[in-house]
Structure prediction request, 72 residues.
Amino acid sequence: MKKSMAKKITMETVMDDPRYRGYHVIVVDGKVFKARTGEEASKILDGVRIKFPKQIPEITYIPDADTLILWF
Prediction:
């Protein structure tokens, strides 16, 4: 009998998803949390640290497509 393997969400998959553009994103234990402002992200991060004390969260801001800065 095969166990169904759920696809684990990583920061790489989140960064490729256009739904998260313009958000502060926190990924921990395969779960994604997003916030519009840094203040909201800070509150979410406080909750994540309590809920997942042994996990290290990955945190980033994904800019809108209009605000990307390209270096050549």
Summary: The chain has one domain: 11-67.
